[in-house]
UniProtKB/TrEMBL annotation:
Biochemical pathway: Pyrimidine metabolism; UMP biosynthesis via de novo pathway; UMP from orotate: step 2/2
PROSITE patterns: OMPDECASE
Organismal lineage: Bacteria, Bacillati, Actinomycetota, Actinomycetes, Mycobacteriales
NCBIfam families: pyrF_sub2
Record's protein name: Orotidine 5'-phosphate decarboxylase
Organism in which the protein naturally occurs: Rhodococcus coprophilus
Catalytic activity: orotidine 5'-phosphate + H(+) = UMP + CO2
């Protein structure tokens, strides 16, 4: 069985270093001439799949925009994930789950167990109930060859209140999360399967050199992060950085060729990550 890290490394090398978000904001549904309802959600997702499937390395559906429509929205998400995965495009479910014990275990099984209708290649998780509380997801991912992206230093301005706080040993909380993820990746020869999330909007990133795993960098475009920011924050860890862009590309829709052009222009901006 290949690991998520191995499959991701291959996808980044062959398709370019980019994760595109499927974020069906109400404003985008309207701008695409679609209803803010489950039919609109379904059409939006189908157009995204047509534009991105087989083209980008990773597609990241933002689960909240599906959940808001209840069970019908989740059915759209199930179909979207299944089509993308069925054709070999890596799906990172952006669910940002974090809980304790058996509840975390249920979240882990939802996103990472073979038999789950929402099973994805990887999921985002929040370690802010304690990194150790993520063990069910990390262990299941290790067993099933799937990935987990741990929020470390997020792109929102409020995140620093918690993430920049210092531990007794002087490290920031964000750095401690990166170090915990690094421990999980020890021994992986290509790229570990435990990633971290570091916002492209930040003044400073945690030290990522020992991570041996992927770094998802959201915040490019609509939140003000640029390719230069990604270059600066990635320092020395270029091969493992995966910028995420959602609205900046989605605004080019609903035309599939226009979405693909926007993807091509964005991948081009990040060509330096493969140097
Ligand atoms: O985990 C994430 O993907 C994430 C972490 C973070 O720190 N900041 C962040 O913006 N995201 C997600 O990345 C996407 C960014 O969307 P845009 O700002 O439209 O590119 C949204 O789905 C966010 O929920």
């Amino acid at each position: 069985m290949s690991t998520f890290g191995e499959r991701l490394a291959e996808a980044l090398a062959s398709r370019g270093p980019l994760c595109i978000g499927i974020d069906p904001h109400p404003q985008l549904l309207t701008a695409w001439g679609l209803g803010v309802d489950t039919d609109g959600l379904e059409k939006f997702s189908e157009l995204c799949v047509e534009a991105f499937d087989g083209v980008v390395a990773v597609v990241k559906p933002q689960v909240a925009f599906f959940e808001v429509f209840g069970s019908a929205g989740l059915e759209v998400l199930e179909r979207t994930v299944a089509v993308l995965r069925g054709s070999g495009t890596l799906v990172l479910a952006d669910a940002k789950r974090g809980d304790i014990g058996s509840t975390m275990d249920a979240y882990a099984r939802t996103w990472l167990a073979d038999e789950s209708p929402l099973c994805s290649d990887a999921v985002t998780v929040s370690p802010y109930l304690g990194f150790g509380a993520l063990a069910p997801a990390l262990d299941l991912g290790a067993r099933t060859g799937r990935g987990v992206f741990v929020l470390a230093a997020t792109s929102n301005p409020e995140g620093g209140q918690v993430q920049n706080a210092r531990l007794e040993d002087g490290r920031t909380v964000a750095q401690a999360m990166v170090d915990e993820a690094a421990a999980r990746n020890a021994g992986a020869d290509r790229l570990g399967s435990v990633g971290v999330v570091v916002g492209a909007t930040l003044a400073q990133a945690p030290d990522l050199r020992e991570l041996n795993g992927p770094v998802l960098m959201p915040g490019v475009g609509a939140q003000g992060g640029t390719a230069d920011d990604v270059r600066r924050l990635a320092a020395g860890n270029l091969k493992a950085v995966v910028p995420n862009v959602s609205r900046e590309v989605l605004r080019a829709g609903p035309s599939v060729p226009a979405l693909r052009d926007a993807v091509a222009r964005t991948v081009e901006q990040f060509a330096f990550l493969q140097d």
